Amino acid sequence: MELLHSGKVRDVYADGGDLLLVASDRVSIYDVVLPTPIPDKGKILTQLSLWWFDQLADVAPNHIISATEVPAEFRGRAVRVERLKMVMVECIARGYLAGSGIRDYDKDRAVAGNPLPDGLVEGSPLPEPIFTPSTKVAPGQGHDETITYDDVVAQEGPDVAAELRRITLEVYRRGSEVALGKGIIIADTKIELGYGERGLTIADELLTPDSSRFWAAGEWQPGGTPRYLDKQFLRDWSTTELREWDRTPPGPEIPEPVVEATRNRYIEVYQRLTGDRWR
Ligand SMILES: Nc1ncnc2c1ncn2[C@@H]1O[C@H](COP(=O)(O)OP(=O)(O)OP(=O)(O)O)[C@@H](O)[C@H]1O
Ligand SMILES: [Mg+2]
User: Fold this and answer.
1) CB under 6 Å to ligand 1: residues?
2) How far apart are CA 260 and CA 265, in angstroms?
3) Distances (CA, A) of 87 to 8, 51, 94, 152
4) I need a surface site. Which of 18, 20, 87, 152 has the fewest CB within 10 A?
5) Residues contacting residue 162 through CB under 8 Å, at least 6 positions apart
6) Does residue 12 contact residue 23 with C-beta atoms inside 8 Å?
């Protein structure tokens, strides 16, 4: 099999006309892959994405062909997928004010061209979920930048732009409703889409703690610090423990107790959402 691309987390192989997407145990923060793996993370994310693709199968076609027809060495962490022509936009939906959304809101009272009311603080729910696309930037070429819906229209045309927005918001609405029933707030999420046999198709991973902000519901209120069930925990660790790290490679080694705590969060999310025990 030919290795086409090694992403921050996934290795992509060509296998006949299909792709094999193999999720490693690598973890990245601020777009930097840290030197320490999180054991089982690749398997957990792969299995959680498969669960979500199943739950949301009616929203749009997805790229999954098989989770079992993969080489034995990759079993559990690999999926056979349809090879898509990727749309060069990161499709993000936000239901709460967090992350880069806060900076944009403080500056413009808007995020990605979506006007927002006064008085919101970090962690506030938005009046309704909004579509906040960003550019897709090749590794090492800097960070993704927020763009407006009109930018997506200019790049992809009005019909595709409308469909990207519809699918993204629908994934977010449906996903956050399911998650909330299981005690998890999805503050925002990113999906990737591409063109395939059935038109616009959801690719990559779906509603995972790597692609989304997950907060423990019930232990949280606006303005307070949520208990993070995602990588924010690691980002916070990296700034409190290593104030001198400038967020460029190489990233810091993660100490064993932090590895364990991070792994436990991935497992907690998997178990809460799917209702299955992680073996
Ligand atoms: N069905 C598909 N067809 C073609 N490319 C795909 C498909 N599914 C995922 N990809 C691409 O495979 C790569 C997976 O790598 P990985 O998930 O590690 O992401 P990345 O590019 O490093 O960045 P990010 O953190 O933004 O996801 C991505 O470039 C993604 O766009
Ligand atoms: Mg990815």
Assistant:
1) 5, 7-10, 12, 19, 21, 63, 81-84, 86, 139, 192, 194, 203-204
2) 9
3) 19, 24, 20, 10
4) 18
5) none
6) no
**Residue 158 tokens, joined:** 């009005």
pLDDT in tens, 103-149: 999 999 999 999 999 999 999 999 999 999 999 987 778 888 999 99
Q: Mind listing the pLDDT tens digit for each residue in 197-253?
A: 999 999 999 999 999 999 999 888 888 778 999 999 999 999 888 778 999 999 999
Q: Which of 2, 6, 10, 145 to mutate to test the pocket of ligand 1 (most atoms within 8 A of CB)?
A: 10
Residue pLDDT, tens place only, 14-29: 999 999 999 999 999 9
> For residue range 51-75, what is the model confidence (pLDDT) as tens digits?
999 999 999 999 999 999 999 999 9
Nearest residue to 207 via CA among 19, 1, 51: 51
The Cβ of residue 164 has, within 10 Å, a number of other Cβ atoms equal to: 23
Peptide bond into 250 cis (omega under 30): yes
Tokens, residue 67: 């989770």
Protein residue with least CA distance to atom 13, ligand 1: 7
